[in-house]
Amino acid sequence: MNSKQLQYFLTTVHKGSIAGAARELDIAQPAISQQLASLEREMGAQLLSRTFSGVTLTPAGDLFLTHATRLMDDINNAKSELRELVGKTAGTVKVGMLPSIGNVLSMPLIAEVKQNHPKLKLEISTGPSYSVKGWLEGRQVDIALTYEQDVDPRFMTVSPVIRENLHLVMANQATSSEYSHLAGRESIPFWALSQFPLLSPGNKDALGKLIEHYEKATGVNLQHNLAYSGQLMTGLRQVMQGEGVMILPTSAIFHLEESGLVSTLKIVEPEMQRLVLAATNKTSPLNEAVLKMLKVIKQVVASEQALQHWRGSLAFTDQSEMKGVLASGSLMSS
Hints:
The chain is an alpha/beta fold. The chain has helices at 3-15, 18-25, 29-43, 59-88, 99-116, 129-137, 206-218, 232-240, 254-258, 288-306; strands at 48-51, 54-57, 91-97, 120-126, 143-147, 156-171, 187-189, 246-249, 262-268, 273-281, 312-314. It has 3 domains: 3-87, Arc Repressor Mutant, subunit A; 91-163 and 275-322, 3-Layer(aba) Sandwich (D-Maltodextrin-Binding Protein, domain 2); 165-268, Periplasmic binding protein-like II (D-Maltodextrin-Binding Protein, domain 2), CATH 3.40.190.10. The protein contains 10 helices and 11 strands. Strands 3, 4, 5, 6, 7, 8, 9, 10 and 11 form a 9-stranded mixed beta sheet that branches. Strands 1-2 form a two-stranded antiparallel sheet. Strand 1 (48-51) and strand 2 form a beta hairpin. Helix 1 packs across helix 2. The model is unreliable at 318-334 (pLDDT under 50). Belongs to the LysR transcriptional regulatory family.
């Protein structure tokens, strides 16, 4: 039994004849007769008495009419609720992110939304962490992908995404004699970073705050003497020209590493990491489109992490990652 058979049965009863149902549904009479006969065989009873003047319900048909009406009502209600749900997930979602995150996430996120979520429209803005924070506070974006160093529990609700490993990024060891002695190594202790001139943002930026935190925790002072524009792409050009090194996650440079333009060493002793968060403004109610986009973002992050484009551990399966991040903020469910 299917909804088509139920529809044909109810319309035939309502119109009093198969011919009337055929005109109502704009379907050939034999097609309706065939479906009704199939329905009766499945029910194991004759539901309609057929005469030249039309059809009438048999006792079995009269009983079945009650159930058929209820079933069609349930089907129509389900369709209506699903249409409403799909309608709620439609809409434009504005996402703000840092250039390092955008480098790994923007293109696959756009592709995923376009291919599998056509009712969603994605708008991406990239900028330094303090700009992304301001956009979220001013409701210029719906979702901000940022770092724990920039969490403000006064207006942010956050969900952990990935705890990323930070690396020393330098000119390719094979082409730069300055770094040739590091060839064959996979990691470098934090204290050894003090040997290299560092291109780093100021402590207004989340990364700058993190580097300063590790310097204080270890007692190691790094070389911050190089002029840095604050623009990621400009800094990476300087790195590739051998003008200095940077501390970055692989999300920012995986494409350059795969092309052999830069080399990376994981920073250890202590291991240098930072937590990426998806933040929303707690003063703005979340609609279905934003909730859906949050799930899509986590799905794409997991894919990029599996490809080793974004090295680290997924954090949205472990709420304990957030202990200590917010003393008085709330976490959205993952």
